[in-house]
């Protein structure tokens, strides 16, 4: 779990507006200029300036990743490229375990939501009066419940194919030989 992270809470409307806008492409003036820029950043300064700023940006990214669940969305929220994330994975030995922990946290959030939808369900309007919803029904997801049970109780609910012999016994393997006889030689 990611700890000691202070990130501004971002309203859902702002996240949606950020995700819908195309990201401007930044181009270096020349290949030589971009190579100098990368070289000057060094191993510790990938994506930002000092190590403290890098850690702060990493923490903000990881927090956004846990909440949003995708690299693309998290990168847009903290205004960085996906390549920066991959550079951190390769160059920063402290980042990889923190990212793996964030992936687990994100998967736990998804699993909790799947359980909530499968067990508690959502209120869905079914009756309307004068354009307004007047009656609601709780709709649960049997498909989500099925997949959750298949994943957690594989012995009971998992998909399985069992090959057995007669009466559930073991399969016996026999060697079958084919003998080809020439009818003209037998006459």
Descriptive overview:
The structure is a single chain. This protein has 187 residues and is mainly α. The chain is 53% helix and 9% strand. A two-stranded antiparallel ribbon has the order 1-2. Helix 3 runs parallel beside helix 6.
By DSSP (H or I, 4+ residues per run), the number of helices equals 9
The low-confidence runs, each spanning 5 or more residues with pLDDT under 50, are: 33-45
Please give the number of β-strands: 2
Shape: flat
The overall pLDDT, averaged over residues, is 78
Could you describe the largest sheet, including whether it forms a barrel?
A: 2 strands, antiparallel
The helicity comes to: 40-55%
Helix-strand pattern: HHHHHHEEHHH
Indicate the proportion of strand residues.
Answer: 5-15%
Give Rg in angstroms: 29 Å
The CA-CA distance between the termini, in Å, is: 85 Å
SS-based class: mainly alpha
Q: Order of strands side by side in the largest beta sheet?
A: 1-2
Short description:
This protein is mainly alpha-helical.
Question: What order do the helices and strands come in, and which of them pair?
Answer:
Elements: H1 12-20, H2 31-41, H3 51-68, H4 71-78, H5 82-91, H6 95-119, E1 122-129, E2 132-139, H7 142-152, H8 154-157, H9 183-186
Antiparallel strand pairs: 1-2
Features:
187 residues, mainly alpha
């Amino acid at each position: 779990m990611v700890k000691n992270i202070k990130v501004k809470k971002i309203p859902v409307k702002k996240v949606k507006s950020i995700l819908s806008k195309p990201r401007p492409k930044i181009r270096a003036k020349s290949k030589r200029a971009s190579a100098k820029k990368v070289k000057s950043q060094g191993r510790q300064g990938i994506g930002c300036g000092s190590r403290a700023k890098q850690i702060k940006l990493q923490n903000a990214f990881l927090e956004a990743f846990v909440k949003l669940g995708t690299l693309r969305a998290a990168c847009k929220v903290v205004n960085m490229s996906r390549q920066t994330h991959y550079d951190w994975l390769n160059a920063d030995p402290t980042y990889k375990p923190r990212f793996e922990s964030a992936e687990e946290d994100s998967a736990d959030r998804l699993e909790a939501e799947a359980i909530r939808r499968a067990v508690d369900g959502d209120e869905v309007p079914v009756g309307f009066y004068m354009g307004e919803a007047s009656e609601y029904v709780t709709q649960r997801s049997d498909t989500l419940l099925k997949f959750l049970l298949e994943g957690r109780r594989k012995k009971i609910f998992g998909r399985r194919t069992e090959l057995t012999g007669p009466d559930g016994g073991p399969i016996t393997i026999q060697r079958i030989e084919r003998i080809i006889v020439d009818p003209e030689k037998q006459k």
